[in-house]
Structure formats: C-alpha cells, structure tokens
TrEMBL record, chains A, B:
Pathway: Carbohydrate degradation; glycolysis; D-glyceraldehyde 3-phosphate and glycerone phosphate from D-glucose: step 3/4. This is Pyrophosphate--fructose 6-phosphate 1-phosphotransferase. Keywords: Cytoplasm, Glycolysis, Kinase, Magnesium, Metal-binding, Transferase. Residues 5-305 form the Phosphofructokinase domain. The record marks 140 as: Important for catalytic activity. It catalyses: beta-D-fructose 6-phosphate + diphosphate = beta-D-fructose 1,6-bisphosphate + phosphate + H(+).
Amino acid sequence: MKNNVIVGQSGGPTAVINASLYGVVSEALKRAGDCGTVYGMVNGIEGFLNGQVMEMKPLEESGDLELIRTTPGSYLGSCRFKLPEDLEDEVYPKLFERFEEYGIGYFFYIGGNDSMDTVSKLSRYAQKTESEIRFIGVPKTIDNDLVHTDHTPGFGSAAKYVASTVREVAIDASVYDNKKSVTIVEIMGRHAGWLTAASVLVRKFEGDNPVLIYLPETAFDTEKFLEDVKSALETTPNLVVCISEGINDGKGTFVCELESSVGVDNFGHKMLTGSGKYLENLVKARLGVKVRSIELNVCQRCSSSMLSATDIEEAAAAGAYGVKAALEGETGKMIAFSRKAGDGYAIEYTTEDVNQICNEEKTVPLEWITKNGSDIGQEFIDYARPLIQGQVDVPSEDGLPKFAYRR
Amino acid sequence: MKNNVIVGQSGGPTAVINASLYGVVSEALKRAGDCGTVYGMVNGIEGFLNGQVMEMKPLEESGDLELIRTTPGSYLGSCRFKLPEDLEDEVYPKLFERFEEYGIGYFFYIGGNDSMDTVSKLSRYAQKTESEIRFIGVPKTIDNDLVHTDHTPGFGSAAKYVASTVREVAIDASVYDNKKSVTIVEIMGRHAGWLTAASVLVRKFEGDNPVLIYLPETAFDTEKFLEDVKSALETTPNLVVCISEGINDGKGTFVCELESSVGVDNFGHKMLTGSGKYLENLVKARLGVKVRSIELNVCQRCSSSMLSATDIEEAAAAGAYGVKAALEGETGKMIAFSRKAGDGYAIEYTTEDVNQICNEEKTVPLEWITKNGSDIGQEFIDYARPLIQGQVDVPSEDGLPKFAYRR
C-alpha cells in the first residue's frame, strides 16, 4: 500500500490545534520507515481539492515545527467545507484521484464535529471502493461538545483563558467597591455551556464572583434573572455574571434574538447585539444599577497567553496517537480520551468510531447545573480543574510572543 | 516632624499600579529609621476621609506584599474623587486633621491626571498652612498621557497586551484566507492614541496586519476610511483595522456618537454602541464584505497575562524613588521618567512639579502619524518597543494566576 501521509485542519482555530498538527507531523517523521512523505493540506479539504499542498519535513529542519507547537490558530489554514451526503457525488472520485496522485496511505484531519463528518464520509467511501487509505480524526474544539471522549483538546486552554479573564474582569470591577455594579460577561458556546461553566473555576469562596452563571442547557427566564441579580447585589456589591452566548428561553429563541427584532441602525439593518448587551440594557432599565457587558473576544479560542500545559501536551499526544493507530490498521476512527478511575488525574488514549461522533453533541449534564440554572456544581469543578493545570512557556521575540507563519 | 507614611491608589486600574504600591511600601519599610508606620488608604482619599486605613507591614510578613507586585488592579481599591478647587473648603482641614491623627509625614498617591490634581491641591494647602507633610505623586495610566515624563507605568504592559491580542485576532482572522474579511479592533483611548498606536508593534513586514490604524489625534473621515479599507483589501484579504475608541471628526463629535443618535432599543433607550460597531455596520452596508468588530475588554488595562518586565520594574522603582524624594525633602512633585540619550534604552528617575502636570494631556505627536492619519511611523515604534520588553512570571495556584486579595 501507499504510505505517504497527509494532514489537515478544519473548523475554527483553537490555542492547541497546532499542537495536534505538531503531534501528527513529528510522529510521522519519526516513523520514517513506515511513513513516506508527510504533506499538509492548506485550507483543509477545500484547499486540497484546489491543489494546495505543502511538504512538512522542511519545517522540522527550519525549527518551525517546534514553533508550531505553541502557535495558536490553524497553521495550515482552515475551511468550512461539508462533503456531500451522497457518496456517489463526483467530488469523491476526484479527491481519491488526488490521494492517489500524492501516494497517500494515511489521512489525518484535526477538527470538531464537522471535521469528523468529513473523516466519516471519506472512510465510508474508501470502504465502498475498497481503497486502503486509512482515515483518522484528531479532535479539537473549545466547545468540548464531542461525544465518546472525556474532553477535547482546546477546551482546557480556552477554559483557562476564560477563567483567568473573568478573574481580571472581577478585579477591575471591584476597585470602586463602595458603588454597586453589575458586569455581564458573555462567553462563547451556542449550544453547550462547557466554556461558560469554566468561569466557576476562579471562585475562591462561597459567594465570590462570578456569583451567577447561566448556560444554554437550561431555559433562561429574564424575570428570574432580574430576581437573581437583585438578590446577589445585596451581598456582592460588584457583581459579575457569566452567560453563554447561546442562552435561550428553552423553546428555541436565543436571548440575543429578543433584541435583534427591535433596533434598526441608520443603514436600515437590524442591530445584532449579543445576549450580554441585551441583558445589560434590561438590568439598566429595570434595576437602575450601574451595569456593563463584556463580550470576550476571539482570543478565548486562540490566545496563547493562557495555554494549559495539560491541554497542549494532550493535543500533541492525540496527534501522535493518531499516527500510531493508523499504522496499526485503524480507519474511520477518532482519537478519544478516557479518564482513568482513581484519585489523581490520568487519561488513556483510545479510538472511537467516528460515525458515532460526527452528528452528536455533548452538553453539560443537567445535574451539574445548580441553583435553578444560575450556578455550577462541584462535579464540574472536579471534572474541569485538572484540564487547566500547568503553564507553558511561549517563545518570545522583540517583547511579543513568537509564532510560526506559513510562508 | 511626623514620619508615618500613607499611600493610596486612585483612578482606573492598571496591570502595574500595584507594583508601584509595592515599591512605595517596601522602600518605606526598608527605611524604618526614617519612616514610621506605613499605612494604606483604602479606596483612595475618599476612603481615607471615611476612616478606611490599613497597616501595610503585616503584608510583608504574610508574603502578600510580594504577591501584590504582580497582582493587577488596585489592591487598596480606588476612587474618583476630585478635591474642591477652593482651598478654603472645609474638606482640607478635615483631611489634615486625619493626617495629624495618624502622624503622617509622607503622603504618596499613585494615579493619573486626576490623582496628580489631588497631590497638587494637598501640597498647596500644606504650603498655605505651613504643614510639613510632603506630598508625592507616583504616575500610572495606560493612556500614557501625562506630560513631563517620557512615559507612564502601566502603558508598557497595556501596549504589550494590545499588541499581542491584535496579533492573535489577526491569526484568528486569517485561517480562512481565501475569503475576504475585515476585522475592526477598538482600543481604549478617548483623547490620546498611544495605546492604539501600540498595535503597530506586531507588524512583521510592510503590509502586514494591522494595515490601518486610526488615532483620535487626527480628524476621522468615514469616506476616506472606506476608501482606505477598499484599497487595503486588494492586497490583504483578511484585513485588520485598529481604531481608538475616541476617533472623532476633528470638530468634537466622536464616531460612536454618530450611531447613538439613531438606534433605540426596546426599553426606549438610545443604543450606545462603540466606534467599532458603527464602522462595522458602515463597512457592511457600503462595501458588502464580511466584517466584524471587536472591543478589547477591560483586561487591556488590568491583565497580568502580558506584563512587561520593563514596565513592572519601572513601576516599582518609581514608587521607591518617590519615598527617596520625599525623605530628601521634596513635596508637590510627581516622579517622572527621563529617557537617556544614546543607543540602548535607559531611563533616569526625576521629580517634576505636579502643578505643571495635573491639567495637561500629552497626545501622540502628529508627525508620528503617517499615511494621512491611517498609519503610525517608525518614530513611535522606536519609542514604544523598549517599553514592552521582558516577560514576568506570575505565581500560579490551581492552574490560575495567584493574586493578592485585601481581607
């Protein structure tokens, strides 16, 4: 069989998706006897279709591969390209002709749900056509919403970024502690509240900020929210509230959509504001208290400033394990994490059927959400705390983090 | 004369205002022969008036003082309290009675423009009443807008945070590099563009992001802006634009005010959106290109994740130098930085008349702003680059930065 390797990245960036790329590439280069040339597809499967392919070995020689490990974002570029459901579509033979052309024996795709869908379809097409190419998915997503794995690479660093940012926001909010104020922090997560839940990790004592935390998993009631805020302000004058961007009424309407139906800007467009902005206006109007909302920016998904050592090591190891699994004959699988029972934190790498993963979504268990949907329980803290451990030294240059750039 | 020491913090928080507090307190404790008890005023001069005073020596014994050095925000809390212009006002004798009560000989106030106004008034009142208390201001502000000093503590770390965040935003924007997009980053700075200008520090080559940078120092013309964006998109498909929150038409109208006169939310309030949101809507309507705006949150003024070693060391040294100056008899002065001539970067600490500082504002020199107000020149880069140098290890605990808390 052919034994060249190709690896791609897909979906949104994370802080450690490049660590998984590093893991795949360095392991494949290490196993030069089993693996032939190692290629990267630029801009995922879409770029590959357009012939955007690069060789990866020169990066090891230039030292860039080591730099890639701590560089956030997708070094190879990304795409959002869904392969057709119909395996009879003409794109499949086209892709497999290209694989043939490059002598590909092993295909690795690093990404979330949609990327696993790509791995699923390609592996099924391979089975159908009796192709020997092996297809392996390496998980990444800050959303932590993939099933059949304890957690996903990217979540730990994003959680650490969110937690430390919320702490700094709380510090900022507390300097005038003689004046009551509400700060609403909106955190990424449309359907799953894992990342928002991570804000609980900064709480040092009962009643410490963030006092209120709302996830999309439970129905959000604006009147109850106002009651919660009013009551919390009595004991915490500088209140910090964390919400998922996807909080909703439980019947399919996002809180941010309540607003967008009303405001129109001077270009005649609907004003699309987030859930945080909506609640800011609500608190101002109804409680008359000083209030601001903060939307954490894209750095929550791709900042290197709060890398979790645990996360980056697992991300790299997942990539390397993918190569091992493929060489051992596995295909149509996603690399997964299984947490070992016992006191300390330890995980085991496994492979799971990618077809069972790609169209499912794992949300925060309802029993981990407490106080009628306004807080997070100890189970989550025990689950998430190990994932944010350890600091990572990011190389720097001229006073700023030094990253790898594709030339 | 009395020789007890009191120190306070005022105005908005920064990443290193506590390093200056550390500098004042540790120097005063070190000079126990000259200085008596070292007090901190909680919530600035306003809290002091209400009797909120704490002893600082126990913090050295508990190890908290060392922790304070790398803790962002105002450990002692802050206030925004302007002393009356009229030195005959009854608040002055009240304050000086309190100073008497605590045996204060040396007063240190760490803050920006308004805090220097407090130092100015107190020192003038002292002169008028022949009080021997010495009043010293220690500068801090991310805005870098104080006159008679090369720069201010707090700016270097904020500049480093802004620059590295803009780089990560640019990385995030570039992963789908086959699609054109505009990302507008709004950075703090109402009247002075120093912090926004710092975004230029991430540019690695001519034409690298951020390609366009707009400061409040020059008049902002929306039509020219659209032309700039259109033309930049031709060579940079994933364009990043940085703007100061205070960009204005040069006649006193902020760009963000253009918007607020139009939108009304469903509570009947004006929609107050920032300049970034306004320009996002403008680009969408007029250029029809994918666009998003990002408002850097409060962490740009108080994150410890991107501390500049140069900044934190200078902030601590400024505090210590303040104690030295006061012991040598100076009063009514602010500690200032003078950059030494020559190749390498070195500064000298000096004292400047606080009365000359408190009502002035230093903006970015117009000759440092290039390309008709859309870019920043080499002079700024040479000026700012040394201020962001060096990484700082922040202690951590349980996977998150460990900060000092006032109990």
